[in-house]
Amino acid sequence: SHKGNEMEKLKKYVSVKDEDQFYHQGAVELLVFNFLLILTILTIWLFKKHRFRFLHETGGAMLYGLVMGLIIQYAAKASDAESGTVYECEKLKSGQSTLFINITNQVYEYQYKREISHHNVNGHQGNAMLQKMTFDPSIFFNILLPPIIFHAGYSLKKRHFFRNLGSILTYAFLGTAISCIIIALIMYGFVKAMVHTGQLKEWDFHFTDCLFFGSLMSATDPVTVLAIFHELHVDIDLYTLLFGESVLNDAVAIVLTYSISIYSPKENPNTFDAAAFFQSVGNFLGIFAGSFAMGSSYAIVTALISFTLCEFPMLETGLFFLLSWSAFLSAEAAGLTGIVAVLFCGVTQAHYTYNNLSPDSKMRTKQLFEFMNFLAENVIFCYMGLALFTFQNHIFNPLFIFGAFVAVFVARACNIYPLTFLLNLGRKQKIARNFQHMMMFSGLRGAIAFALAIRDTESQPKQMMFTTALLIVLFTVWVFGGGTTPMLTWLQIRLVLASNPDKNTTKAESAWLFRIWYSFDHKYLKPILTHAGPPLTTTLPEWCNPVARLLTSPSAYGDQLKDDDTDYIINNDELTENYESSAHMPVWDRTA
Amino acid sequence: SHKGNEMEKLKKYVSVKDEDQFYHQGAVELLVFNFLLILTILTIWLFKKHRFRFLHETGGAMLYGLVMGLIIQYAAKASDAESGTVYECEKLKSGQSTLFINITNQVYEYQYKREISHHNVNGHQGNAMLQKMTFDPSIFFNILLPPIIFHAGYSLKKRHFFRNLGSILTYAFLGTAISCIIIALIMYGFVKAMVHTGQLKEWDFHFTDCLFFGSLMSATDPVTVLAIFHELHVDIDLYTLLFGESVLNDAVAIVLTYSISIYSPKENPNTFDAAAFFQSVGNFLGIFAGSFAMGSSYAIVTALISFTLCEFPMLETGLFFLLSWSAFLSAEAAGLTGIVAVLFCGVTQAHYTYNNLSPDSKMRTKQLFEFMNFLAENVIFCYMGLALFTFQNHIFNPLFIFGAFVAVFVARACNIYPLTFLLNLGRKQKIARNFQHMMMFSGLRGAIAFALAIRDTESQPKQMMFTTALLIVLFTVWVFGGGTTPMLTWLQIRLVLASNPDKNTTKAESAWLFRIWYSFDHKYLKPILTHAGPPLTTTLPEWCNPVARLLTSPSAYGDQLKDDDTDYIINNDELTENYESSAHMPVWDRTA
Q: A GO molecular function for this record (chains A, B) (predicted)?
């Protein structure tokens, strides 16, 4: 018993050491990322100081990631491949999330990670260091993207956004659909050609795969372009059109990709199955609407709670953060799309909750999400650079890659020019030719396309798509991102001076959509959800007075239209200008 | 081939669905935590508004966690235990981080999670929901604790901290050692008694286990008490003594626990092995010193970089965050203690880097870490409440628990009273009797004790320790935390008014230690690392002038001692008061 005792003891120490190694496991890899990010920040600081605008921070991050990937690839070549042996355990049941395995009388717990196609098994057995540098794809969707998307929604310039709402919705929904289909059709042509030349077995690549590729490549991400626009104070309407389009288009592309991935015709996957098609369309609409509802309802709850909470900025910020995150999690838990939910949550939070926050919390929440966005964005772009060399299962197919470049370019053109032509028929302030070219030029692909592509890299077609998507992202971010400033000069797009906020620009759209929404929002939603706006007692019919009095914030009576975020919302005099004839004007005169 | 094709297709869809389930897996559990935190925030807001001080937010978080744990425990009782089957796979090698398992022709990747003792296997097979609500213990050490500890270091009131440095170091090092040994001795007595009464087999519980328990129970965490001190503006010296002690004592306890856990006598573990003992002492000193060096050197690098970076607050904040995190990761990667590194990194950042930051970044960094601290703290306390019911392997041993309560109490007394007596011999401003009682009373146990205890819960003694530690945390946080305000009244401890910062209190300690450090820091470190302080050209000997000119910030010449954080550092007139006779005074007169 004494000997056994000692053995036990010894084994315990060994196991403690093992465990410690597991604890420290992630430290080195995270350190590599930290190091890359620090380098990026220092470089960007240098560039910003000297006003070099040909490399944005995301481009820099990608460049450093690329170099680091190259180093790891070649430095760690002769590493152990020990960890890749495949064990035959036919008696196990598949699909278990946790395995308890008894190895020489010691039970170990293993956690499910993923399923691996047979032809990839060898790839996975490669370099241990490369393997460790590979994130779990779900990290992109659950950790890195949500803050980026929320921040996008939260910093939407609503004043101009709502003025251009119709155009933005057209580009985002119709444009993305057009882009998806055009890319799919062109890629299908190239795939057929590849089958002809024997580069591809036919059954590998269906039209649905092409649609999948089309939908993921339709997510534009002009973060580089927008950063330069912001810095140079480029025309605000162009900025809004591009920003609004890219934000909403992400949501559309994500849901579209998901809907296509679960499109499953009962018969031959190459034939068109109407029932399955309509089910996919239904899925798309259901998921989109559900996510929208989930996101905005959490934001409305936040607005209602923050009504009363403005004394303690820390509690307020905490609540704001937790409720926004809950929108994401609830959507995920309900089988909807968390990222879409978090986007609309951000938009709604900015529109209502922001008005109720204390000045301190306003700044805190803005800075917090700005910071999270900054970090997450740079991590993703670093990782993209890294992935070009560290990802183990790249399939570089020149014809496919060439086809994809052509497809992306053509699809962007078929999206922007025809839709702008149609929109200009209805718009009061037309979208000028040079603006159209700039929008065409700003069709960069970025984080979303990458995240959608890396989500599934098990089959060979998916690997080919991933490689191609990665190359398109690298190319567009560097070339188009870097070329933004020369392009602006070349297209002679006017720069608005920072000191001159364009107060007296004419309304952009024939604003019936905007007008209906604005009136409803201003009369009913704003008074209920914020301290701003006219008291409900004046906007609701008289018989609603008891309810109205209950719902109106006491401060709404005293102050006159106290809208805190003039930066965001149409300001007072502009409102008067636009709605001189509208019914509720006299009300303000009365309260004044 | 066509049939196989379809099968393939079908399988793909099934696998996509499976994968999606894995994606959503964490959402529900995170949602439960979010919900608990939101509840906590709302409750605390209510309490703060009505100035109830008997329940701090951490106590509230714990309470809600407890209730939620109870609900989960009883609601999810009849859940599936399917996932807990143990598979015999003798041919596998142990210690692999990744398993590739071929189950009916499909390869799955599984990731190592942990080792499980045989007698726990049944426990782990229990309720799936409870299992999911259980964090990986490494999350505490790698994600939740670092921001808390960094924030503690970053918000140390240095002015008073350095004045009481000797006392704080005495409490932290000597006091923690005393506390550890006393607890170990008392527990050893109780363990012997338990063996006598047949409650325990002797070989289960060595003296080293008692020491392990003693060290982890020596980490005090008076977060509740300090929050109330802060709110009521209790005497700043008492605040500093308690805060400084608790911060440093965490570092000491963590390293001590680690050193004890790797203490391995070659012979019988019950006998004293001098060589192994001195190795443990060496380990302790080495790890502590190494972590200290790692943390402070990263902070110094940050200070040097931030010297030049103050135009872009976002880049500055990002760099600050990444370098501080790198301190943690580097220490972990080097086999040191990340948490200790991050603590000293925080202290050094506050002392040097903070002075170089732009006003915007000063606020951003403070608010960022304040926010992270707030969230992490509440998550840990929520989890503690939850763990009382959801943790599967509790061992409630009344005698052991009773013994632990006695031991913790006695050890705190043996720490505070004798050490204070000794310190008062040397201090100019004595630590009063009522202060001593308050310090005795403030010996709460919290996050660190819990995190140390949960790190290893595989053997039965460790499980008994975990259960006991948890109960002590719950008890002390609620009872002592809640009793702080009455205790302050009862002990008649004076409250300092917020508007009266105690400028003219006399020096607390006979300040030789402080004087040496201050002089060195002020003359050499501050001028090199910040914009503040006298120019190096005046403090260094004349022959060093070329080097000095190089190292001095240009702004140091023009301005006179521009120390931005008067809140943190001894201010100018106090300095004059204390060091009228010191050598460098005339220098200022010259520069003035």
A: sodium:proton antiporter activity
